[in-house]
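This section describes the prediction task in plain terms. A model, or a person checking by hand, is given the sequence of a single protein chain and must write out its three-dimensional structure as a string of tokens. No templates, partner chains or ligands are provided. The sample shown here is typical of the held-out split.
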Amino acid sequence: MFNFLVTASDGAWDRIGYEYPRGRFLEYTSEEIATSFRELKELQLKALVELPCLFAYEGTDEPMRVGRLKTVKPRNSGSLLYIQPELDPRIPPIPFERIEPLRMALDIRDWELNRTHWAIKDEDLFEVLIHAGIVPGNATSPKVEKEDLPPAPPPEFQADSVGTFISHVLDMVHHGSEVFYRGHSNRLKYRLEPSIRRKDERGNFIYRDAEDRMYRELLVSNSIDFHGDVYTLDRLVRMQHYSLPTRLLDISSNPLIALYFACKSNPNDEGEVIVFAMDRAQVKYFDSDTASCIANLTRLPQDSKKSIDYSSNDVRKFNKQSAVKRLLHFVKEEKPFFESRLDPRHLQSVICVKGKHTNSRIAFQSGAFLLFGQDATLEENGSPEISIQRISVSNKQHILRQLDQLNINESTVFPYIENSAKYIASKFSFKET
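The expected answer:
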């Protein structure tokens, strides 16, 4: 395996250090490898340093360099990854013309050189370069295989019944905080990311680049359903309800609802319930200005979103960018008196939003949402604003039977007549004893 690091910053790999946004880490990386680096603990950071590196610049004009990472450090509460590159003096710069025929062998995919990101590839960098005659045959580098990767850290709490689960929830003290929950049916597979940022098994984004088009297509084909929605956030909530990928992540204020989702599918896999706690003052509502700014990023084409430069601390300069002006136009459509100034920090943040209960499903599930800004990530172990604890869940069928006794089942969690009919049919079907 090797680290493949791409940047648009000229001369970055000749400097003493460089910072990657955490959201750009593990793009174009297989799900199997990405799972091992869901949390960046000591073992994961050590593994990153042991991997050889191929350093590249966006585009095909600049040569690539081979080397390693002297250090990797999470910064800014994990939202940034600081690295110190060390170029291998034995290996001269490699022109793109010599890398081009090797792209398939190195798993460098189409468009990867058009985006700043950090991938981990399941290929032997030195073996490929030696075979191509780019690197001398005596050049060596430590090998790290998938089986050498550190396992995902185990959760702090375990539950195999509703009783033990509730006991853990009640023992978690969150004085003065608002608490929400989310259930994952496979604790090793699923991450805290919205559906718009989901990837296939090879690490390619499935929906991200078509976000604005999907939004408009659903409005065109089902405009009557959105007639009463005032804000873009309202539309996103409804779209999420209809299973369109969005930048929203569902959470609930009811822990038993989260427990139901942790048990509902993948019966043989260990599930988990994630417990989020945050200051009540940080929870936004459907008419929040910050929520409006982040939600309207949906309407920008991917090229426009990508063109926004967040590096400057000068808010005036930031707001002069054409893509930011277009975003401001969208915000003012729903908030005419909004001040003509967007804060770049808000656009890259993750916030908790309570949307309108526009349907019975959201109402019964006590639904709220995490709304993700551009390239924003929520660290799996939390942030200064949002603390996270986890409860692993096993013995799922037993828990589902107990939840049914508490009137939490498919009929009530998904309160539509077809689900009620399915539940009733299952409940009264003949079963041998």
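For orientation: Residues 322-334 form the longest helix (13 residues).
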